[in-house]
Write a structure and sequence with these properties.
Largest interface: A-B, 62 and 63 residues
Number of strands of chain A: 39
Strand order of the largest sheet of chain A: 10-13-16-19-24-27-30-33-36-38-39
Distance between the termini of chain A: 96 Å
Structural class of chain A: alpha/beta
Largest sheet of chain A: 11 strands, mixed
Shape of chain A: flat
Number of helices of chain A: 4
Oligomer: homotrimer
Chain lengths: 351, 351, 351
């Protein structure tokens, strides 16, 4: 794709320094860029690549020292975001899926919107409602009365169980399972587990993205609710009756246990675990591998397993790292106290 | 569904207080219940909802203070279990899959039981044996000589590899992989890994449930064995040659490494990891995110990474949390010893 | 399968002691072997089974004490590797998939090599290139321009996204997702996340194995690269722009965050987490459940969360385990110092 540099700079509100009349074919990372590419610089750790990058043009912060003359600069605030905006404008992937494939099975009672594409071997069961401009890729299955909102994109081999509802502009990656039974059993007097029917559903509000092989269980009763704008990374587990607040992000391999409620604008880093039946306030950040066993009522950053408020956790971590030094200090104290005791005894004995 | 309250109370052995002649349409959680619903109360943390619940009837413990007159009470021991029994009786989902879909591929040498339903695009390979009253949902694949016992339920997009055997009344959720190769390699002198053929299989005894995207590897030689009544939550990993004992429960995202044997009636909470080649006794509870690197020979509760016996671990955790206080005490001791040393020196010097 | 013992011994360079003229039908573990089986002994913890094993022949280290006369010995260095070589020679599974199934959808522009088998309901999209002697099992999907090298084996229900490339002799287990979008968003002033197009791909070099339900995200820009000989276990997550070096092994449920580069010949044990944008040197071993938040520049063994060099971590772990004893020593010191202070005061006061 040929990109007019002047047009691109105007789109992001940037100012060009250098040769305006170059044509850009591609966007690339600074260390991999080739002639014809536009790149960007935003982390100081990447500045080492500036002197050697082969990019033809580069997005930089206003005031960047323009030490090279063979490259065109575009000054713009937050070059990384500007770069993302150009990616969205010029490189948003266009998937070629069109129409309803003859090998797809669409139940006569299912409603399919306009301009919606259904791939090969897809199963759309009775009572399903699929909106407009949806793409459902090959070998994906929707059981009875599942719903998908307009402009959603569902990749191959996804499983959506009965009565689950997906909002508009969803992106559901391959291998996702939405609406599997919650993990609910009761034990009898012999310790044998009996399955409790899981008769609720899952609702994804608008603008939700689910990474590959994510699992979201249906509610025991009621709804497992993923609110507007939530982004969930690969291999995350969401148990029954969980609520995830708006614009919350959950990174890969984290797990949220049953009935826990997470607030808006939270960030869970990777491999975090939350026990069930707790509440997490809005604007909480939980760092990687933390384990949360109690409700968090105050926004802020937390880590550890069990998790502590960030500064407390850092301090504890430092103490633990210095444990050998503390042990040495205890030993030194013991020796000194011994010496003191001896001296004092001698003194008392008049020696 | 209309439920006769008198019949429902009789079924669970409960005693009705208040208006017996109401019709119940639904079971609901206390905080979400509406007129016509039956709910239950069993955790004190939910009592706050009692004064405002709109439920028409409620299961309560015998002796519960009946402060409202506009609701019908059913006194019953363990209201939560009674509620689950009503859910099972009246709301066990009836899946509508019937017959063998023409798009399914059933090998001529496969044996399919009576009243068994095979969904769209399902592949049943040569030599498979499927029992009676089984439902295998769309796009699931069984390779050669796989077996499934009576009354089992297999959801869409499941992969069951050759020679693996699933018992009766199994529930296998979407995305499960049973019988993938164990992770077995040997290295040559150059550090290159060579695959060791994994020629064993997986056996699931009766009444096993596997959550979505669970992976269970086939044995290198012999059998990876999941015994009767085991319940496994989403995204759990079971490696080759593992044995999981009867009525053991494994929560989401836990992993069990190769050749480890877990006893009966154990509970692994979420994100637990067990190294390979160890044994876990019966009746062991391992709390969330724990890492188990040695055999556990005694029933009881364990946590931590590496895991300790529960009380020991709690005590250690408390010590660690109080680490700053201990550091302060060491500093105070150092100051005091210094002072003592000075005083004693002065005294010795006759000052 | 009947195996001639003399031929088998010659193949592994072993020396037979005892009856050479027996026929072996099977290879088995020492504790499960039956008459007609060949087994092996290599860990001392398994020697307890030697006196009772029913195996007809056994691989042992040179010099092993041959206390039984009813069993044939084959002396060989590294009996476990020799056993694996026999497994490979005599028991490598032969999958029966042949030809292109009529239910498979192969786009006219796709190129399929010689002797390649495509299973039922497989989707091979436009521009795909599949090498020779490849087997792609049922219900697997390849989107546009995906490529698979010669002699690769792809199990059922795998999803391979557009433009991703798989090398020769790959083994891709069920449920794997290759090339899902990286987890990349930018936030606007309201804290709403906007998707950054992920326009790169994934490349698997030759001899890579991916366990079931592994997820590997495509690069934001450029390539997520899994180098020659890498073996990845079930449920592992590899984020966008990660590079995994040659002959590196990653165990189950580990996760590698975006843009991190792992060297050659590394071993990540189970449930390990690596943050993004760090570098791991060659020959690094990271033990189970460790969390790595900084680059590792020196080969060696590391553990903990946050991870430390192995010996340091072991020492810290010992200190932590002994924390109650240190607390007791602090208390004892406090009492002694108190006593000293009293005594000294008395002495100063002339008592």
């Amino acid at each position: 794709m040929d990109i007019n540099l002047v047009e691109a700079a105007a789109f992001i509100g940037g100012v060009i320094y250098g040769n305006k009349n170059i044509i850009i074919n591609n966007l690339a990372k600074i260390e991999e860029a080739r002639p014809g590419d536009l790149t960007f610089l935003y982390m100081t750790s990447y500045e080492k690549y500036f002197s050697t990058t082969k990019a033809s043009a580069i997005l930089v912060e206003p005031g960047f020292k323009k030490s090279r003359e063979d490259i065109t600069y575009i000054e713009v605030k937050e070059p990384n975001k500007a770069f993302s905006r150009l990616l969205i404008k010029y490189f948003t992937p266009q998937f070629t899926l069109n129409g309803v494939d003859p090998s797809a099975s669409v139940h006569p009672t299912a409603v399919i919107g306009n301009n919606t594409a259904i791939g090969k071997n897809v199963v759309i069961s009775a009572g399903c409602k699929i909106g407009d401009n949806v793409k459902i890729f090959h070998n994906t299955v929707l059981l009875e009365e599942a719903e998908v909102g307009d402009d959603s994109l569902i990749f191959p081999n996804v499983s959506i169980r009965e009565k689950c509802k997906i909002g508009k502009r969803a992106v559901i990656h391959s291998g996702v399972v939405i609406g599997s039974d919650g993990f609910g059993f009761f034990t009898d007097e012999k310790g044998v587990y009996h399955k409790i029917p899981q008769i609720g559903n899952v609702i994804l509000e608008d603008d939700v993205e689910l990474g590959s092989n994510v699992t979201i269980d249906r509610a025991a009763i009621g709804t497992t609710l993923i609110k507007r704008g939530v982004k969930i990374d690969n291999l995350v587990q969401i148990a029954h009756n969980v609520v995830v607040g708006e614009d919350t992000v959950i990174s890969s391999q984290s797990g949220v246990s049953g009935s826990t409620k997470i607030g808006d604008h939270c960030i869970l880093a990777g491999q975090v675990g939350l026990v069930g039946h707790i509440n997490i306030a809005d604007n909480v950040i939980i760092t990687a591998q933390s384990g949360i066993s109690k409700s968090i009522t105050k926004s802020g950053q937390y880590f550890g397993s069990p998790a502590k408020e960030f500064k407390t956790a850092l301090k504890l971590e430092a103490h633990i790292r210095n444990f050998p030094a503390y042990v040495d200090r205890i030993k030194k104290l013991e020796a000194e106290v011994n010496t003191l005791q001896d001296k004092l005894n001698n003194l008392s004995n008049g020696k």
